[in-house]
Specification:
Layout: H1 8-19, H2 43-50
Length: 57
């Protein structure tokens, strides 16, 4: 090991080699909502949503 401090990008690269990219750079509320696939929604969930009266929005 050397006594020179590592830069931030070197530290991130070293940690990514060991642990992988665990967390995304942005959170879901910071990103644009993407299209949901029909497979992602459970059939029971779709049925439940279809049963909501119109006045409950």
């Amino acid at each position: 090991m050397t006594d020179t401090p590592e830069t931030e990008w070197e530290r991130r690269r070293r940690l990514a080699e060991v642990f992988g990219d665990v967390l995304p750079d942005t959170t879901a509320d910071e990103r644009e909502p993407g299209p949901k696939s029909a497979e992602a929604e459970d059939a029971g969930e779709a049925w439940l949503k279809s049963q909501v009266p119109p006045h409950h929005g």
